[in-house]
Design goal:
Blueprint: H1 3-13, H2 23-39, E1 43-48, E2 55-64, E3 70-93, E4 96-122, E5 127-135, E6 153-156, E7 164-167, E8 183-185, E9 188-191, E10 199-205, H3 229-237, H4 243-269
Antiparallel strand pairs: 1-10, 2-5, 3-4, 3-5, 6-9, 7-10, 8-9
Helix pairs in contact: 1-3, 2-3, 3-4
Length: about 280
């Protein structure tokens, strides 16, 4: 179905003379496409090879005493720690000295180092530092992407899959099984820090945006839903001016998308069985 064909159908459902691709019509079409892709997810699968930095813990917990100055050796490309309280950490390496101030009930501090380094904790009051760790490798020049020791490695789908809409299942490992300990958080995958190997990610994609300047282009639409999109758009178009008509078209759409989902479920669960011995 093309955009100009869809617009004609929408106006015919409203028993009106065609008025063109108005902003309200285009907005209703865009909203309807996203609704349809939510009701009937269009799945995509990609493979990833996550490079997860391996951290070495320097200490699990350190309690800073007021006016003390305590130093610890670091070695690697990056460091991170968590802290509760008010104070300062100074890092010294071949590049010079850099200071990191903190003052909150909970803070995360991350930074880069060059080989052998030293970190010194100072401050007039007491505070607690936990999970100071160093990393031999980094995967980004962005300090915010330096992980915390022992915590899950976060993979944002933004930038990896521009058409990402939402996840449809947990990620799978090389054996095809769901990765133990993996979680999903919005548009991010959270992997255990000790995960290694190939990752298979399945997600529902967004519909391609409609270009009103190209009305002859085909709309990104599952073939099984060609007859349903005009109904859903019409239900949005007449939502304010004719609530009864809007509800009628919405009901037709719900019945139709329910039938399509059932048919897809049946076809996906059908298993071919050879009863002749020739297959």
């Amino acid at each position: 179905m093309k955009l100009n064909e869809l617009i004609k159908e929408i106006y015919s459902l409203g028993f009106e003379t065609e008025g063109g691709a108005t902003p309200s019509i285009l907005s209703a079409i865009s909203r309807s496409l996203y609704q349809l892709f939510t009701d009937l997810p269009q799945r995509k699968t990609i493979r990833l090879l996550p490079s997860i930095p391996r951290g070495t813990r320097v200490f699990k917990s350190y309690v800073h005493m007021p006016r003390a100055s305590d130093s610890f050796g670091l070695c690697g490309m990056a460091f991170s720690f968590k802290v509760s309280g008010e104070g300062e950490a100074a890092v010294e390496d071949s590049l010079g000295v850099r200071t990191y101030g903190f003052s909150s009930h909970y803070s995360e501090v991350r930074g880069f180092i060059s080989g052998d380094a030293k970190i010194t904790f100072t401050g007039p009051v007491g505070y607690t530092v936990s999970e100071l760790a160093v990393f031999d490798t980094v995967t980004s020049t962005d300090a915010e992407k330096i992980p915390l020791c022992g915590e899950c490695f976060r993979i944002p789908m933004t930038g990896i899959a521009p058409d990402f809409f939402f996840f449809t299942e947990l990620p799978r490992g090389e054996d095809g099984a769901f990765v133990e300990g993996a979680r999903l958080d919005g548009d991010c995958i959270l992997l255990p820090a000790d995960f290694s190997g190939e990752l298979t990610v399945t997600y529902a994609r967004c519909p391609r945006p409609i270009d009103p300047d190209r009305p002859e282009d085909a709309i990104d639409l599952p073939p099984t839903c060609v007859q349903l999109l005009p109904l859903l758009v019409a239900s949005y178009v007449w939502l304010e001016d004719d609530s009864e008509r809007s509800a009628y078209y919405a009901s037709l759409y719900r019945d139709g998308i329910s039938r399509v989902r059932n048919e897809c479920r049946i076809s996906s669960s059908t298993v071919f069985r050879d009863t002749t011995g020739w297959a």
